[in-house]
Design goal:
Largest sheet: 8 strands, parallel, barrel
CATH superfamily of the largest domain: Glycosidases
Helix content: 10-25%
Protein name: Protein containing Por secretion system C-terminal sorting domain
Structural class: alpha+beta
CATH architecture of the largest domain: Alpha-Beta Barrel
Keywords: Signal
InterPro entries: GH, GH13_cat_dom, Ig-like_fold, Ig_E-set, Secre_tail
Number of helices: 16
Strand order of the largest sheet: 27-28-29-34-35-36-37-38
Organism: Lentimicrobium saccharophilum
Family: Belongs to the glycosyl hydrolase 13 family.
Radius of gyration: 33 Å
């Protein structure tokens, strides 16, 4: 609908009345309320999202106003109560079944206590149950889950259509369209169809019925007038013909097909549907012949070619299916989200598109021709062998404060120095919300914008590859969530689940651990989707492999209410996974396929021997041992050989995103049996984590650690809710005890990478009880690891494989073994790592780096030094935002270069100096300064 009044009021009119849910959900008396009026609001709970339909308890309004100072429709002002607070002023009166009345008075301005200096534009509502039902509030909102708005009018004449309630209407030939229009102060009203006057009445109400013609777009206008003013409202209706049957052009696949710089062919897979329109920026979001999709002869696909697009321009668009389903393209590589994009800062995502809130509802998608391709610096990265993987699992949101890829790039030096050779990112394809673990996906081909633009992701992967670090994508294909276009296309509203004819999803999940909506992985359509997804990220982002979430759920065997049966050997599930792995390896034969499986060993063995890698959860065992418990503390299952597997394809771990942090468990549950050695003491607890790490890394096979585990992260997984944001604890590096733990972890990782013995297949394990040991044998070296997990001193026979000189790695001490049956005394929590070849003693003591007493850690000296090619890298870490200046001077104090001057955010940074060609070889001074810190280094330019 279009209103005659000023542009501002036109915009607000569209927001308030364009979409049916808003106009139907509430009715106001008077119909055109001013801020000085008392207003009755009638709420129909059976409409909109129906969240309060049938509810018989008290209903309250969560309500505020939109004023001329509001920044967006979500920026409510003068909200009456906090969420969940019940007051008489916000209690609705029940006036019938699902009908409620709220009286706002003595005037709108007085009810909300809005200053006279502010203009009230709209009333805003969410209606709520007075008490929680099944531990959650029942909410009355719009059909799409949005807030409800009613316009507040200034003085003057206004008119509107009460019916129809939409600004655009789809119709069929001969269909009756009921017209009802009202005005506040009109003395006469006139109805026009396609600019021809069809009816006029005296007064301020007009009723009529029109019959839709044969085809095309038709415009309906109401004109209201009185002696002083004229007001206009309008809508259009499009008369739809049956879909035109036409073959799909050759080479076109489902999704967005870029033909050239100005042409795109869209193809939507939608069996059983009757008709589809495309609406978007390219046609002003209106129904028209040029946006009506062809149907293929098999009635499974709809397609259209869009011409005359502007090269390089981003266009937001949607499909309207069967007149009432608005979805984005399932294969789109970028989405426009009405609920979440507005909270993403320009810093995280520069130039983020504004959602067309006055044009449509629901998640839309983006197409762009002639997109500038990313230029990869590393084209043929050789990922580390599976058996040598040290995977660092992280959630961008909880690892770097700015939660973006650029800051993550700045932190790679830290991870490289730690020694890891793979990073596993928790899910980053588009998911619902912004702050999330990411296991609630809706679009599988689009990077979530909360972490930054797509090319920042590519740049992060490129930088990882330059550092020799593989990137593993956490992929969620067990399920999808409700804003997925594939869920929405076939939806059973009556049962609030996917419809029986949904090509991709099971109406009822097949296992108890499902969240969201369960994929049917035996469906050919799901198989096609999965194949497209797993190829896409390797081909377009050079991902080195996947960790698949809930891989045990990829089955059609129904095990609801029987989790034991869910984990039993399932040949059909094995076949599904072999087919997925084969698809991945057809693109990259060396790609990692990692499963979070947790099925019985007979099944995992088949998958591992086929070449897949399996998560080996050992969190309880390591935590129990570190706590000083004598039960459930056997590490034996961390070995692939103990499981009877042929290949070392078990990724064992002490912590993951899903497990309680080992340090937290020790501090909360650790043994206090020995008053002189209480494991709940922070210093002792950190030493116990050292002990656990020594055994974790010395068992042959790939390993994984969770972010900040190398620093003894001790915040519970349930802090701020299980999936809620967690404190980012880079300040741990200021604690020498935690730096020592980090250095020990780093030394263990690098030790594994330096000697073949740590990949040997000739090893024995004795990992039950308090005293544990590992023996590794290789022609080049033998290794013996022993440790005492008791809270009291203990004696054990290490069982050295031979007599002679043995060297303790961490202390550098030597031991002459004259009898392999002699016992060794170990203090509580003590560990030793012996080799029969002397190795360089690692620097673990107080940790690397130099720390001032405020907010800077120079994490390492600038490198390389000397500079052979004139490029210097200065790595450092900031604990809080600060001003930083880094300059280069010669020995006389003359500044020859300014590396950086300005404000820097908290986090790790790498700043580069490229020495100019006219700077002579010699000694130079690099100085880093903040308001509270100064540090200088000598560097040599050759």
């Amino acid at each position: 609908m279009a209103h005659f009044k000023s542009g501002l009021w036109l915009t607000l009119w569209i927001i308030a009345f364009t979409f049916p849910a808003n106009a139907q959900l509430i009715v106001t008396t008077p119909a055109f309320p001013a801020d000085v009026d008392e207003v009755e609001v009638i709420f129909n709970a059976s409409l909109g999202n129906g969240g309060l339909a049938g509810y018989t308890g008290e209903v309250y309004a969560h309500t505020g106003v939109i004023t001329d100072l509001s920044s967006s429709p979500s920026d409510w002002k003068y909200v009456k109560t906090n969420w969940g607070q019940n007051t008489p002023a916000t209690l609705l009166e029940r006036i019938g079944d699902d009908l409620y009345k709220l009286t706002i008075g003595p005037s709108i301005r007085q009810y909300y206590n809005v200053p006279a200096s502010e203009t009230i534009l709209q009333l805003a509502f969410v209606f709520r149950s007075g008490v929680k039902v099944n531990n959650q509030w029942l909410e009355g909102k719009t059909e799409t889950g949005g807030d409800i708005f009613a316009e507040v009018y200034p003085d003057g004449l206004f008119t509107r259509f009460n019916f129809p309630v939409a600004s655009a209407l789809l119709s069929e030939p001969g269909e009756e369209i009921i017209i009802e229009s009202v005005s506040n102060e009109a003395d006469s009203m006139f109805l026009f169809i396609n600019e021809s006057l069809t009816k006029s009445v005296a007064g301020n109400n007009l009723l009529d019925t029109i019959i839709s013609p044969e085809s095309g777009k038709n415009y309906v206008k109401i004109l209201a007038k009185n002696q002083f003013e004229t007001a206009v409202d309008s809508f259009y209706f499009y008369v739809r013909q049956p879909a035109i049957i036409q073959e799909l052009p050759g080479g076109i696949i489902d999704g967005i097909n870029y033909i050239n710089d100005s042409t795109v062919t869209l193809c939507l897979y939608a069996p059983f549907k009757e008709h589809v329109f495309v609406i978007g920026d390219f046609n002003n979001w209106e129904f028209e012949d040029e946006g009506y999709l062809f149907r293929t002869p098999d009635e499974k696909r709809y397609w259209i070619t869009l011409n005359n697009l502007e090269a390089g321009k981003e266009y937001i668009f949607q499909y309207l299916v069967d007149g009432n389903i608005r979805i984005g393209d399932p294969y789109a590589e970028k989405v426009s989200d009405p609920w979440n994009d507005k909270y993403i800062s320009q810093t995280s995502y520069p130039g983020i598109l504004s959602y067309p809130a006055t044009k449509t509802t629901g998640v839309a998608t983006v197409l762009q021709t002639s997109k500038t391709p990313y230029t990869w610096e590393v084209d043929n990265f050789q990922a580390p062998p599976k058996s040598e993987l040290i995977v660092y699992e992280l959630l961008v949101r909880d690892f770097v404060a700015k939660h973006d890829y650029q800051t993550l790039i700045d932190t790679l030096d830290y991870l490289k120095r730690l020694g890891i050779n793979a990073i596993e990112l928790m899910p980053f394809s588009e998911f619902e919300g912004n702050s999330s673990w990411g296991y609630n996906p809706n679009f599988y081909f689009a990077p979530d914008k909360y972490y930054g633009p797509e090319n920042d992701l590519r740049r992060f992967i490129d930088e990882c590859h330059k550092q020799g670090i593989a990137v593993i994508m956490d992929m969620v294909l067990n399920h999808s969530f409700g804003t997925s276009p594939m869920v929405m296309l076939y939806w059973d509203a009556a049962n609030n689940r996917p419809a029986e004819n949904n090509p991709w999803f099971n109406p009822v999940p097949k296992h108890d651990f499902n969240v969201g909506f369960d994929f049917n992985h035996e469906s050919p359509d799901t198989k096609e989707l999965v194949n497209r997804v797993v190829k896409f990220w390797i081909e377009n982002y050079k991902i080195d492999g996947y960790r698949f979430d809930l891989s045990k759920g990829f089955t059609q065997k129904n095990t609801l209410n029987n989790t034991t049966a869910w984990g039993l050997y399932d040949a059909s599930r094995i076949a599904i996974w072999k087919a997925i792995a084969d698809t991945i390896w057809s693109v990259n034969p060396n790609a990692y396929v990692i499963l979070e499986h947790f099925a019985e060993n007979a099944e995992e063995k088949v998958l591992a021997n086929y070449g897949m890698m399996i998560w080996g959860k050992m969190s309880d065992e390591y935590a129990n041992a570190a706590k000083g418990s004598s039960t459930s503390n056997n590490f034996n299952w961390a070995s692939y050989k103990a499981r009877g597997w042929d290949e070392p394809n078990l990724i064992s771990y002490m912590e993951s995103h899903d497990e309680e942090r080992i340090m937290y468990r020790i501090l909360k549950e650790g043994s206090v049996a020995n008053p002189a050695y209480r494991t709940r003491d922070t210093t002792i607890a950190l030493q116990r984590v050292q002990l656990a790490n020594v055994f974790h890394y010395m068992i042959p096979g790939p390993k994984m650690l969770w972010q900040f585990g190398e620093l003894g992260y001790d915040i519970s997984i349930d802090f701020n809710g299980r999936t809620g944001e967690k404190p980012i604890k880079w300040n741990y590096t200021q604690d020498y005890r935690r730096r020592t733990l980090k250095n020990i972890v780093s030394s263990l990782i690098k030790l594994r990478q330096s000697h073949e013995v740590f990949s040997t297949t000739d090893f024995t394990l004795a990992l039950s009880g308090y005293q544990k040991k590992i023996q590794l044998n290789h022609p080049d070296m033998k290794v013996l690891v022993i440790g005492n997990f008791d809270v009291y001193p203990g004696s054990m026979v290490p069982g050295f494989p031979e007599t002679g000189k043995w060297y303790e790695y961490f202390t550098g001490d030597s031991l002459s073994v004259t009898s392999v049956s002699d016992a060794i005394e170990l203090r509580a929590g003590e560990y030793r790592l012996y080799t029969n070849v002397r190795l360089t003693k690692p620097e673990t003591g107080l940790g690397i780096g130099e720390t001032d007493e405020t907010n800077v850690v120079i994490a390492d000296f600038p490198y390389p030094n000397p500079l052979n090619e004139g490029q210097l890298i200065v790595p450092f870490y900031l604990f809080e935002d600060t001003d930083m200046e880094i300059s280069v001077t010669d020995l006389s104090g003359r500044i020859v270069s300014q590396i950086y001057s300005g404000r820097l955010s908290a986090g790790e940074h790498r700043l580069k100096w490229n020495a100019a060609a006219d700077i002579k070889p010699g000694i130079y001074i690099v100085t880093a300064r903040t308001p509270s810190f100064s540090k200088s280094f000598r560097v040599v330019l050759q």
